[in-house]
């Protein structure tokens, strides 16, 4: 995979692939969009070194912009779909105690201005899906949700791209560098999942 992405690192196709993956994983959280972003960043960094083309900064900025934009667009699509199909989503959420609890916490956080929960949840496994769909089901106003979604998408994109870039720079554009960067992403996800389960701390910091 690293070799294939390395060949695409200097073409527009890398942004199409990354953008599509990030956009769709709000509906299919099993898609490894974070892994793909990291791998693409590692491949772009390795390509810049191997071709002596200088800095990979422009490619990194483009990857951040692509991933962040796709993240926000995917969030908004999920939000609007959940808004229009609220009853069906309510019934689906009611069947899961975890989703019901997450929905209640999200509503409380948004009402109190504690949108930090939206940012933190972006790093947690499936957290983005729960937040985007939950905000739509609860008919939260877009101005309450969109700024935090944008901040969440940008934060996640910057973090993922930096992991890939510095992993490739320090450890080389190899599977080892990619694996270490992906491990750091998963650790951040585990930490985010822990914080989401303790929303009072997040709300206190945001308030």
Describe the protein in words.
The chain has helices spanning 2-8, 13-24, 33-50, 57-84, 86-94, 97-111, 116-121, 127-137, 142-171, 175-196, 199-206. By secondary structure, the chain is an all-alpha fold. The termini are far apart.
Features:
207 residues, mainly alpha, 80% helix, elongated, disordered C terminus, cell membrane, membrane, VTT_dom, DedA-like, transmembrane helix
Task: Draw up the topology in text.
Layout: H1 2-8, H2 13-24, H3 33-50, H4 57-84, H5 86-94, H6 97-111, H7 116-121, H8 127-137, H9 142-171, H10 175-196, H11 199-206
Helix pairs in contact: 1-3, 2-3, 2-4, 3-4, 3-9, 3-10, 4-8, 4-9, 6-8, 9-10
Radius of gyration from CA coordinates: 18 Å
N-to-C CA distance: 43 Å
Strand tally: 0
Helix content: over 70%
Structural class: mainly alpha
Fraction of residues in β-strands: under 5%
Outline, from the CA principal axes? elongated
Biggest β-sheet: count, sense, barrel? none
Q: Let me know the average pLDDT.
A: 75
Low-confidence stretches: 201-207
Q: What sequence of helices (H) and strands (E) makes up the elements? A: HHHHHHHHHHH
Number of helices: 11
